[in-house]
Design a protein that fits this description.
about 375 residues, alpha+beta
């Protein structure tokens, strides 16, 4: 939409790191309503939820690690959990998934060298620590580590259990395989070395004859995520500025009247002026949009001296949020208000005038 207008530093380096759609309440709504993300051919996946905890209650008291498929259907990830000094449990969505997982682990441990990857905070330029673990005599030891800009391929990602919000018993360690095939080792009381030693022996002892398959009706799912207040509003406001640039041209949004909202978008200070829409009639109008569509509704209020205030209502997954983009900008000459309809299944955007949008709901406009 914005050919030769997008600033890489702002759009990617600053706002791209906010990951609003995966780590916010909107991310949960997106997982339920949107069947898949952008079309990437055979790599197209269901929308992800970025959370520090995604677990399903288990009769043993040790929760199972899960992820979400289309329409937020929980999928039990293949995993091994240390539940005692010499005991462990194995869980997966089905027998085939467990066998494949164990085969992958067995091949990994037989190589006697494993690269573990630990992700650091965004303040670090080299965000990934690569740790080389060797097992010369069936006991893993750390030999070296280095910091890299990109994670090495084929390693095991290291995570820690957050025991402060644990609702069930936390295993000493869990090794699991994500939906994309990546391996994760989560530890609590066990060290990384001890956990690798344990699981290397465990994969040799798994008996598939003792596995039990059962359906779970009404699973209890726990999701814990950390969100930053104001981030969602910043990303939505950025979309509003982009839509204005597309509709009115780049020069329009360079007016000094947009300076404050741009500062809010880029830095979070001052906070983006936003409110939930309470007007029932406006909500009715926005709810009348076609199924699987977001609506961005741009309006203007005339001011003296040829100036205007510009407001946007973003209707995302059924929730309307009003954002004031500017209180003092040049009076726009093209027609206002306008509607941008975003088909979030086919990833298409359509611009409609008020009259064009009204054609789809004549009975409502007539009231």
């Amino acid at each position: 939409m914005l050919v030769d207008m997008v600033c890489k530093r702002c759009n990617t380096d600053i706002l791209g790191k906010l990951e609003m759609l995966r780590s916010s309440p909107i991310g949960i709504a997106r997982a339920f309503f949107q069947p898949h993300g952008r079309d990437r051919g055979k790599h197209t996946t269901a929308p992800g939820i970025q959370a520090r905890r995604k677990q399903m209650a288990n009769e043993s008291g040790y929760p199972d690690e899960v992820d979400f498929g289309p329409h937020a259907k929980p999928i039990v990830l293949p995993q091994l959990k240390i539940t005692g000094e010499k005991s462990f449990t194995s869980t997966a969505a089905g027998p085939d998934e467990l066998r494949s997982f164990v085969t992958t682990l067995s091949a990994l441990f037989q190589s006697h060298q494993i690269t573990c990857i630990r992700k650091r905070g965004p303040e670090h330029q080299l965000r990934y620590e690569a740790i080389i673990m060797l097992s010369p005599d069936k006991t893993f030891i750390q030999t070296e580590s280095s910091f890299q800009a990109k994670p090495p391929r084929g390693g095991i990602w290291l995570e820690r259990y957050d025991e402060t919000d644990a609702e069930d018993v936390t295993p000493a360690a869990t090794i699991l395989q994500k939906l994309d095939g990546g391996l994760v080792l989560k530890t609590s009381s066990a060290t990384v070395e001890d956990a690798l030693d344990f699981f290397a022996q465990a994969v040799e002892q798994i008996s598939y004859d003792s596995q039990v398959t059962r359906d779970i009706e009404g699973p209890l799912i726990s999701v814990g995520m950390t969100t930053t207040v104001g981030v969602m509003e910043r990303v939505i406001a950025k979309n509003g500025i982009n839509l204005l640039a597309h509709y009115l041209g780049r020069d329009y949004v360079t007016d000094p009247g947009f300076r404050q909202i741009k500062d809010s978008i880029l830095t979070g200070t001052p906070s983006v002026p936003a409110d939930l829409v309470e007007n029932d009639r406006i909500k009715q109008v926005l709810n009348a949009a076609p199924e699987h569509h977001h609506v961005f509704y741009l309006t203007r209020t005339r001011r003296s001296g040829g100036r205007a205030a510009i407001t946007m209502i973003a209707h995302l997954y059924g929730v309307p949020l009003l954002i004031r983009l500017t209180l003092d900008a040049p009076e726009p000459h093209p027609p206002f208000p306008v509607f941008f309809l975003v088909d979030y299944v086919n990833h298409e955007v359509k611009l409609q005038s008020e009259a064009e949008y009204a054609e789809a709901l004549p009975a409502m406009w007539a009231k």
